[in-house]
């Protein structure tokens, strides 16, 4: 088997391939140009979306040429795959702004060329709005739509699931547009492979069928396992919500803690998928004699280092050690997610329910009240049991308040002069 494919297989990425032997032979003979789509409907992706890009990293390291395709055009319609309902429409300007943020985030895993032209071995980011935007609908139906069978499309699971809840005509066009993306990338960039999550299998197969019919060339589909945690929850979900890569939406400290607290059964699997540690080194942690907490800390550190950099990873690790060790240094406190409130406001007194709801520890006043009633709220190492308690400046130490929800989630409130 080709070296890149063997790496992906050993690390647990591969779910399906349209022709594994044929793809392996092609990748042995030449540098293969391949692509994966990225959804620009938000300013940040979450870690659950990153599996194809970690795979892209390994393939790029083996000499193959990556394309990250921003769905600026298809996002104006919405992919029904894996969705229970139609998505909200975004403007072209919003999508373009989001795309800039996504490239910055993906650049932590994939090596992009700085001028965007895709030098040899470098990744390039393209936007399918560039060719979908100017399309003439009549010509598109005549040239592309005639190659699609409605009966065939309805056999794919993504459409079957949505038909039960309602599938709009605009979404029904999505598979044609994604297939046209693949055809365009084949024609203009020699792209022979599309990769993605296994929920994209139907769309990718439709693309290789279109290229075969129109150009007479075999291209390939390679999909990866959809990652769920051992507890059955979706990968990339936490008590706070989605584990975003944007540090303004999900702090590096919370990011570190998410990985530090994964289920024991997930640690080795996640090391293979979400770090660049050699397999031999990972195998050293897959040993009953190794303390599982050491493995979790290494996973958390490596993942935080990749996404947020060495400095943030070091700060998050030291903060976690200090918090659970009892001695909280200034550096450790500064690594915690935080907000700032004015001293005058604190002097007036803030109800403890409102105080917790101001932080990332609780989404609403109801969440805060529930946390307190269940005995999980702590302010400055003091357990809070009274939902009517007022917190004033007498609680502040060294110009700040440290709040805790449960045993592991901390938040810092700085008090400005």
- The number of distinct structural domains comes to 3
How many helices? The count is 20
Structural class: alpha/beta
According to DSSP, the number of beta strands is 15
User: Helical percent range?
Assistant: 40-55%
**What is the H level of CATH, i.e. the homologous superfamily of the largest domain?**
HUPs
What summary fits the major beta sheet?
6 strands, mixed
Taking pLDDT < 50 over at least 5 consecutive residues as the criterion, the unreliable ranges are 79-87
Strand arrangement within the widest β-sheet reads 1-6-5-2-3-4
What is the molecular shape?
globular
| Computed CA radius of gyration, to the nearest angstrom | 24 Å
Question: What's the architecture of the largest domain, going by CATH?
Answer: 3-Layer(aba) Sandwich
């Amino acid at each position: 088997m080709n070296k890149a494919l063997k790496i992906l297989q050993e690390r647990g990425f591969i779910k399906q391939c349209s022709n594994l032997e044929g793809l392996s032979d092609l990748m042995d003979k030449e540098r293969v140009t391949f692509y994966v789509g990225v959804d620009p409907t938000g300013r940040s992706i979450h870690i659950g979306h990153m599996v194809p890009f970690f795979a892209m990293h390994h393939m790029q390291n083996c000499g193959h040429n990556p394309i990250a395709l921003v769905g600026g055009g298809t996002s104006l319609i919405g992919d029904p795959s894996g969705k229970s309902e139609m998505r909200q429409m975004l403007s072209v300007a919003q999508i373009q702004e989001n795309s800039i943020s996504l490239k910055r985030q993906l650049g932590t895993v994939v090596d992009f060329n700085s001028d965007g032209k895709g030098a040899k071995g470098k990744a390039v980011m393209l936007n399918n709005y560039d060719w979908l935007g100017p399309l003439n609908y009549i010509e598109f139906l005549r040239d592309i739509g005639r190659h699609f069978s409605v009966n065939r499309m309805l056999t794919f699971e993504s459409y079957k699931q949505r038909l039960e809840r309602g599938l709009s005509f605009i979404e029904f066009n999505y598979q044609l547009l994604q297939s046209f993306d693949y055809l365009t990338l084949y024609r203009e960039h020699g792209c022979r492979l599309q990769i993605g999550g296994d929920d994209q299998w139907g769309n990718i197969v439709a693309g290789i069928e279109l290229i075969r019919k129109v150009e007479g060339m075999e291209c390939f589909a390679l999909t990866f396992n959809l990652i769920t945690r051992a507890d059955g929850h979706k990968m990339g979900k936490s008590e706070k919500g989605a584990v975003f890569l944007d540090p303004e939406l999900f702090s590096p400290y919370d990011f570190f803690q998410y990985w530090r607290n994964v289920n024991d059964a997930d640690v080795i699997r996640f090391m293979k998928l979400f770090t660049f540690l050699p397999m031999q080194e990972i195998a050293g942690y897959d040993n009953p004699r190794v303390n599982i907490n050491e493995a979790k800390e290494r996973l958390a550190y490596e993942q935080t280092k990749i996404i947020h950099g060495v400095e943030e990873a070091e700060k998050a690790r030291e903060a976690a050690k200090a918090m659970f060790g009892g001695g909280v240094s200034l550096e450790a406190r500064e690594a915690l997610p935080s907000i700032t409130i004015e001293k005058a406001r604190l002097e007036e007194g803030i109800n403890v329910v409102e105080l917790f709801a101001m932080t990332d520890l609780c989404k609403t006043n109801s969440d805060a009240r529930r946390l307190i009633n269940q005995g999980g709220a702590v302010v400055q190492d003091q357990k809070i049991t009274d939902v009517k308690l007022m917190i004033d400046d007498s609680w502040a130490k060294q110009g700040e308040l440290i709040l805790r929800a449960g045993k592991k989630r901390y938040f810092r409130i700085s008090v400005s002069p």
